[in-house]
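Task card 7
Instruction: Convert sequence to structure tokens.
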Amino acid sequence: MDMKETYITKEEAERITESYPTPFYLYDEEGIRENARRLKQAFSWNPGFREYFAVKATPNPEILRILREEGCGTDCSSLAELEMSEACGFRGQEIMFSSNDTPLSEYRFAEKLGAIINLDDFSNIEELRETLGGFPETLCLRYNPGGYFKIANTIMDNPQDAKFGMTEEQILEGFRILKAGGVKHFGIHAFLASNTVSNEYYPTLARQLFTLAVRVKEDCGIRLSFINLSGGVGIAYRPEEKPNDILAIGEGVHRVYDEILGKNGLSDVRIFTELGRFMLAPYGALITRVIHFKETYKHYAGVDACAANLMRPAVYGAYHHITVLGKEKEEGTESYDVVGSLCENNDKFAVDRRLPRLEKGDLLFIHDAGAHGFAMGYNYNGKLWCAELLKKRDGSVKLIRRAETPRDYFATLDIDPDMKRYMDSHSL
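Output:
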């Protein structure tokens, strides 16, 4: 029996496929909005709180506009993400630019937008000053404490092997340079673990950053304006996992805030987050249809999606729960490898997964694909990008990105006359 709920029925999905053939992504507007409001409630104790949604997770303008209406900003890592944010109505410090190995032209564009620039490396400080002819009034530095990041003696990640951020001494020297260069508003940022399913991650990270903020005040004479806890709050991909409680997480950060910042005269520091997976993953699904079966040494169920649509299982061995629409109450009596059609053996959405007996035509709802799903797609084997749809609050479905066509696939080529005639004659 299925243990994760869907936000669409088999009958609704079949109606959608009459207009939009599988595979496609389907996002749930109601779920997105409710989750954004829970996050805001969790940090309502901090008057300056803002969520900067990680655009890289789900770069679709319709999604960004929904989040903007819910009071979110955007976290961008490239020129295209900055441009998308501007086009969606985000302005000035509603945009955070956190990149690494950054082309100088992107710094110029971020400054033009008035975005908050978050510098990844100590050498970026002088690089930015030379590029812009001085520093913006607001700047942020990214921190990497090195070592291992632990929660209750459990290693969560290994920051010292990450390419991101500066050492503590680099951070302190960097702030001194920024202060001498006329910067008026300072921030600090860190991302130390990915997809944590623990209510202790943010409070533990906050303790490190708040302690550093006190040292910045004492050693540099600088009062930080904001502290960005970044992302890393994950989701329960497996149905047996206990999900994060964002209200408990927010209260945990609040206690550490009062304990460290409040007692050191820093009770006006704003708290920022830049969540992607937590904000969108549970509210996006890949809908695909069973089209083929193969019996050799294993039982294979072939679907019309592939790793080019959702690469996480193929690349990371990531688990995504699968619901067979219309068979939610049936037991998983059969074991399948659920596969796509790429010429790669890792093109599998599930391996030895117990599911109800499948039939050709069954629609599968692949859960928790709303972040780092469509965004990480590609065209290997000439596979075309699928459509993205939004289930609106009134139950209607809106196309928010059409499926790619062969003409799109060929559009960036320097096409010779014979190829152009072929495309025109075949309506590609």
